[in-house]
């Protein structure tokens, strides 16, 4: 059995990411409305080959062994995927996979993945029924096929993660989604908040006030369900969690105890904030590698910082001037730059870039007004 100890050890995000997402291919049979990758039906001949893939895994493992997630497109479009997974597992890397619910997902394939040592399987469900989910995924039958695949997964006794993108199409069905997560016996519900990149559109997004409403609902829900909840592209959820914890402990925001709560949130000793020991953000504990080896702060922030075919991933992550900027919240602009939560939250850098063209600008979908700005307003 592979030890997971290195995965849970504290890490310096200046040197090592907590999580690496590798888009092994962009090929996919689905036509999802929000697709970040703008996936294609056929594989790109420029994809990393098997030898390049193994070299990349060696480099990832050397960076304090972060979590590695194989994504796409649909990872199962690669006929050598399980060979790559097996190599990673033998190197001691903790791996997960997010395949699309297509005919590629068979019980035999899932058993082979388990036999190679895949630690978790993640499927996407974006609605509590097939009408909503299939519309969002752009393919009829996607919901039924996903449920069927989940039944296979349970038969194989593999842990199940469900990914859900919150949008205008499903925000009114959160309670039904919670009930479905319980019914499906998930270990983790990973809730994504839409960023208008790829096929994602501004019109599909929920409002800033709706973000806040969903965050509060998630926190309340997290205290009663028997599965974990984490968020993606919702860094300000951490601020909401810390505010709730301060209120529960009856800590005034001007007290030194509140500053200690903030420090705990930045260093990773606060519970209920997801699996990372401290919050990750684009390029800050998080790194993304495209199907052709291009490196980005995340899959939602389309600013290339290097390519693993010509430069080692550790060097790119540690030395890129752009990534160094992203890892310094004191360089953020607007209210994010003066917010007392900036080292805990920092706002979505990808959403800031999508809205303004500047990845250092403020998170445009956050309603919170920092304390220093409230004081200035009261002084006028």
TrEMBL record:
Q: Name one Pfam family in it.
A: Radical_SAM
Q: Which PROSITE patterns match?
A: RADICAL_SAM
Task: Quote the InterPro entries the UniProt record gives.
Answer: Aldolase_TIM (IPR013785), Elp3/MiaA/NifB-like_rSAM (IPR006638), PqqE-like (IPR017200), Radical_SAM_PqqE_MftC-like (IPR050377), rSAM (IPR007197), rSAM_sf (IPR058240)
**Key word S-adenosyl-L-methionine present in the record?**
yes
| GO MF entries | 4 iron, 4 sulfur cluster binding; catalytic activity; metal ion binding
Q: What residue stretches are annotated with the Radical SAM core domain?
A: 14-228
Which key words tag this protein in UniProt?
4Fe-4S, Iron, Iron-sulfur, Metal-binding, S-adenosyl-L-methionine
Domain of life here? Bacteria
Required cofactor(s): [4Fe-4S] cluster
Quote the NCBIfam families the UniProt record gives.
TIGR04053 family radical SAM/SPASM domain-containing protein
By what name is this protein known?
Radical SAM protein, BA_1875 family
Organism from which the protein derives: Gracilibacillus kekensis
